[in-house]
Amino acid sequence: MMELTTIKDAFERVTKKQKLSSSKSQEVIDQVGHEIEQALGKIQSADDPTSPVDQKSILTDLKLKLNALVPLHQLEGSQKELNLNLSKYPKLLEKFFNPDISKAYRNVDFDFHIVNQTVANHFYRQGLFDLGDRIVNEAGEPEAIAIRSQFFEMHQILEAVRVGNLEPALKWASINREKLKQNGSNIELKLHRLQFVEILRRGSLADSLNYARAYLAPFATLHMEEIQKLMACLLFARRLDSSPYADMTSPTQWENLTEELTGQFCSLLEQSYESPLSVAIAAGVEGLPTLLKLANVMAAKKPEWQAMKQLPVPVELGKEFQFHSIFVCPVSRDQASDENPPMLLPCLHVLCKQSIMKLSKSGTRTFKCPYCPAEASFTHCKQLHF
């Protein structure tokens, strides 16, 4: 935190000097321009503009005034102060931030087949289909092309929604109605609601009623309150934007629907809402400072650093990066792993296997649970799977 404060203060000094330099330069330019304009005015208003004597005296007077301003000296002074602060700032950044992030790299065996597919899928997910195709062809991953058509359909639907056309989205929701219900999604109703509101905004009361009878009525059993609210909108057919239901016409309705539509589409494809590549990079950026510090500490022990299967220090990541349950042994404070799994004691307390082995003298004795009076043996403990 202290480092960030120091860098922020240095940055603010640089920006302040930049503003002062810019302001001073503009002031000098304005002064020079003013003197030149005055000289031109005198020349144009002289009794005999063609007289070289009059022009020479005016220009001589202009030169004296410009010399008195010393514009170059003023500009150089402010620019010098700015350059001094600018030259210090990169040095400060280098002091606190190590630009060589390759120090945190370790020789890790990657499944390049999965990596290539992840990169290709990322581009398909973003709608960059030509780029995704190139990755697939150059990496020789024809299997990755399978997801392309599905993401292509998603982007066609989203593009239509962005221009106010809900028909492709409604068709998709109708086809996948049962799967969406299993996901607990009511996005089909939300699409019909938005379509109903758009018809009503255009001022066609009869068309709105017909649409409600055809497409909203089937949802009345489970969503009566929502349907009643929509029917109340009919009372404000020509002034919905200024009615108590104006929120239904807000652009955020379309934005929220687009996000939810993307999420549900990805869910049916058994794909995460966020691109796995984006999540991996974001998590890497957040954990990089800790990894760099550890790499510097382990610089003299490169073989150990390369051979580590588990980091000796925690890498704090936000909750958005936690996708599965984890268990930390309350005795050893170690995080459970395949080699040291969580074990359920008969008293229903949970410890890691290595802690139980220590308490039971490698499984040869009964031991007392650290959290209750109950006794147990290693053979009565059951491995847990999260």
TrEMBL record:
GO terms for biological process: proteasome-mediated ubiquitin-dependent protein catabolic process. Pfam families: CTLH, zf-RING_UBOX. One of its GO terms (cellular component) is cytoplasm. It is found in: Cytoplasm. SMART domains: CRA (SM00757), CTLH (SM00668), RING (SM00184). PANTHER family: GH10162P, MACROPHAGE ERYTHROBLAST ATTACHER-RELATED. This is Uncharacterized protein. It comes from Quercus lobata (Valley oak). The gene is LOC115968320.
